[in-house]
């Protein structure tokens, strides 16, 4: 059909990916989301759309959901608001992929829809059509990729699966970034916010949160888990500033869409050979750099061992085909590993070399 053809690149803008951020409140998701929105356009040429659920779902829906709150039929339903938000996202995707205009929603969806349109407008993704009437066109002229970042807790796997289903339906790329931070750190940082959540709300969510299960759920294979243990606000802010670079790499290498699994399998065999050749070259370059910095021979030996161990781990990931790195190593159209797993290897190898240089 028309939508399917456009989703596969027959029309509209270039590649589109959905990136889900998940974790406890005050784990740092919004800070990292903003960092991604700054870095992805600068480093990879990706356009970004940030959808923050706390801003898009009406506040009354959150109040109605607080533990111990009396049911109030006059307040919007939180679960229904989440469903409506996904429906808004789907309507936007359809408009982008088909070129059809976005029209005003019906009264039942008006609050969420108006918030959603305002959010897209602020980020330059929409433009009003001639004649007004609340009709918009999605910007589809750009050929560069678009990363849609969903910033929410997503503490149940079922919440994340709904987004994955949307990606699968429209042949979009999909990945999820899980920010893991100790409960006490989240509680401390939450208390410093201008509008903190009650402690018991975060405790309750921590007891229910479901980590990505890469072994059980094939659809969660494209996950990156980032761990933070800094509770002090200053150290935490510094760690957040450093992580968008790593996350930028992973998000900009969003895996191919679910409908392209067969093509990816065909590319896998050659990816191992390509990755091995490129890793060898990068190890040689790293060792030359270390020798130029006059690192003692005894430390050069240790450096070589670390780099070769890293290379072996990366190649095994590619060979097994069951890890995030291997998923990233085989892009659509058998792309060069320099733009995928090798970029990650190069980043980690540079960190190892710097450790020796800065001794």
From TrEMBL:
Give one GO term, molecular function aspect: ATP binding
At the top level of its lineage, which domain of life is listed?
A: Eukaryota
Alphabetized, the UniProt keywords read: ATP-binding, Nucleotide-binding
Q: Does the keyword Nucleotide-binding apply?
A: yes
Q: Name one Pfam family in it.
A: KTI12
Residue ranges of the TM segments? none
Q: What is this protein called?
A: Phosphoseryl-tRNA kinase
Keyword Nucleus in annotation: no
């Amino acid at each position: 059909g028309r939508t399917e053809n456009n989703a596969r690149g027959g029309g509209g803008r270039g590649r589109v990916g959905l990136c889900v951020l998940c974790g406890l409140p005050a784990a740092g998701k919004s800070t990292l989301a903003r960092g991604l929105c700054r870095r992805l356009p600068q480093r990879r040429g990706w356009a970004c759309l940030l959808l923050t659920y706390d801003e898009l779902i009406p506040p009354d829906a959150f109040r109605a959901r607080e533990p111990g709150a009396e049911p109030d039929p006059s307040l919007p339903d939180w679960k229904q608001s989440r469903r409506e938000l996904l429906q808004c996202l789907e309507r936007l995707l359809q408009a982008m992929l088909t070129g059809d205009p976005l029209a005003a929603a019906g009264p039942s969806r008006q609050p969420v829809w108006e918030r959603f349109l305002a959010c897209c407008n602020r980020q330059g993704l929409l433009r009003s059509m001639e004649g007004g009437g609340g009709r918009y066109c999605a910007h589809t002229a750009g050929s560069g990729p678009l990363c849609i970042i969903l910033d929410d807790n997503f503490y149940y796997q079922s919440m994340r699966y709904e987004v994955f289903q949307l990606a699968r339906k429209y042949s979009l790329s999909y990945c999820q970034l899980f920010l893991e931070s100790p409960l006490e750190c989240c509680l401390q940082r939450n208390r410093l916010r201008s509008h903190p959540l009650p402690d018991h709300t975060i405790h309750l969510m921590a007891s229910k949160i479901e980590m990505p299960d890469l072994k059980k759920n094939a659809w969660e294979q494209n996950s990156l888990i980032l761990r933070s243990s800094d509770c002090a606000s200053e150290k935490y802010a510094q760690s957040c500033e450093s992580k968008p670079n790593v996350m930028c790499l992973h998000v900009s290498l969003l895996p191919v869409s679910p409908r392209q699994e067969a093509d990816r399998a065909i590319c896998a065999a050659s990816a191992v050979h390509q990755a091995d050749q490129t890793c060898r070259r990068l190890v040689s370059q790293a060792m030359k750099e270390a020798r130029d910095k006059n690192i003692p021979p005894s430390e050069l030996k240790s450096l070589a061992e670390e780099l070769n161990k890293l290379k072996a781990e990366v190649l095994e990931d590619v060979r097994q085909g069951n890890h995030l790195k291997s998923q990233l190593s085989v892009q659509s159209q058998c792309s060069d590993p320099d733009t995928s797993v090798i970029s990650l290897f190069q980043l980690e190898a540079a960190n190892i070399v710097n450790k020796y240089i800065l001794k």
